[in-house]
Fold each of these.
Amino acid sequence: MLLFLIVSFFASVAGAICGIGGGVIIKPVLDLFGLASVSTISFLSGCTVLSMSCYSVGKSMLAGERRVEMKTGTPLAVGAVAGGIVGKELFSYIRGLFANQNTVGAVQAACLAVITGGTLIYTLYKAKIKTRHVDSVLVCVLIGFALGVMSSFLGIGGGPINLVVLFYFFSMDTKTAAANSLYIILFSQLASLISTIVTASVPEFRWPVLGLMVAGGIGGGIVGRMFNRRMDNKAVDKLFICLMAVIIGISIYNMWHYSAL
């Protein structure tokens, strides 16, 4: 059980620093070790990310920080709520299509590898890409919806795709995008959890493991927030790029491993 705590803590530290939630690390790493079923890992990952983002966003607001741009962040969060519910239903539907649940794991791993790969390419070349300044509430809601669907379906909370969207569509710098990403993740994961409970689709899990992962998520949020305040945008970008490279490698391996089972 110690491994669950270690993975959730260090993933949440990185998640709080970069604004990727931590689920994009927790999900593929736990899949790699095969410590639980695909559904259980997705659920535990989502709960961990929710606890970390709840602490980080709450602490930021109590401290009077103004990195979250409410004019765009709130419509994005509203869209993410709806997307989180739809993404959870999509996961349940895909899971029901296959008798072998490992196939679902392979599909998730493949999607994560593609999304993370695209994110890495964008991050490497973002200085050369002209960004936009979207201010339409409707467009913000639709973008949030798409983010919510992807994060909930993949069980990653929000992940790197949030940052790319915030970079490109809203011209945010790295640390501002990280704060807004965690704000979006908080609402999408809360909606996903409520949907799971209401539809009675909570997978089997051990309460001590959930407790350790939530503790790791909050602890990681505390430490990650401290590091984020001391790091500049370039340092956060470098950490983000390194994480993406590692996640792509793990996702490709997981895709192969699940396909072979």
Amino acid sequence: MHGIAFFFFRFLQPKASNPSVPYTAERTQAEIDATFAEFENRAKSQTTNHTISNSTTDLAAQASPKTNEVSSEPEPIASFSTPLKSRANGRRNNIEITASVLEGTVIEAGQTFSFNEVVGKPTSARGYQKADVLVDGKTIQAIGGGNCQVSTTVYNAALQVPDFEILERHNHSQKVPYIAEGKDAAVSYGSLDLKFQNNGSQAYKLFVNVTDTEIQATFYAL
């Protein structure tokens, strides 16, 4: 008891640097015992106010999700793919950049989607390269070639979503090899755009996937 009391006496001694509490080593055994009892009572009262569970079962129950919760996975509503017929590096590079920019785009209820607004201007500073584009019936090399196939794929997927209303869509000056005639959606930043409005009451999320053989656009309901 005396050893423990001495420990708490040392523990409860005020710091010498505090001028408001004078330091003294002269304390009676009764004072020491009283101090120890007070400290012990404080410790007991603090223990009753703070409960710490050592049960691994309780911790596991807190960490694991409820089995009756509804899954938050989005529901696929519409999907469309177009074949990648060209193996040109520049074209594929551009398609992959644009697909990554579009990935995860959310179209809220009442919102209008603009391909050019989301994707932005294709520039070499953003990593875009020259590739084939159709201009006035002629094939030329231009920065961002390949974007029209991405917009066409997105357009045909959007056609399958009942809540979407197509506001702007343009044909190419001649038939393109990756889609049936009249089903394409030409885009050119600053002039030709693909736009559609979400007239429904729920939001939709767009995912665009590029493989070795195709581009696939899928809309999910949130």
Amino acid sequence: MQNIEIKTSLPNPEATLNLITQLGAKPTWVHQQRDVFFNVPAGYLKLRCVEGRPAELIAYQREPGTKPRPSDYDIARCEDGVALETALTRSLGIRGIVQKERQLYLWQHTRIHVDQVRDLGTFLELETVVKGISIAEARAETDQVIAALALDSDLFLDRPYLELLDRENSGVVSPSNLRQNS
């Protein structure tokens, strides 16, 4: 599957939540998520665990950069996330763990995630799913949501939370330099 996505820090979450409501996005759920990332030769492989739901093994790759960009992904659901995590840890090793509270809103083909990431702060992710629409239409929809939410492209990020946490834990990151140009 494919989507067009961006990730951005969110300096004023309340104002953004108001704009999400004004856009007409439908609040869908709020969950605590634990993403365990494994060592892989290309892209990313994570096991997402959410209490009361089947675990999801998610493999993905995305183009570098901070602009809205394609991400290709596959998702496999698993009833026994603990056993899968044990097997993957044994064979691949854990690269890192990301814990967050995620609020999901839906608007047309776009998933709007407002994430409170442990040890990092509040972020927003847009994922416009390229299903039933062309990639050009998905890009246009992403641009429309970016404009409606008044998102500042200077705050767009070029890396997943895992790598932001790696940099934070190494003492490299401050709120003013979360974004690294690639």
